[in-house]
Amino acid sequence: MKRILVVDGMGGGMGKVLVAAIKERIPDAELVACGTNALATQAMLKAGAQVAVTGENAVLYQAARCQAICGPLGIVIPNALQGEFSTRMAEAIASADAPKFLLPVRKRQIILAVPEPASVNEAVALLLDQLEAFWRGNDVEE
Question: CA quadruple 78, 131, 18, 118: dihedral positive or negative?
Answer without folding.
Answer: positive
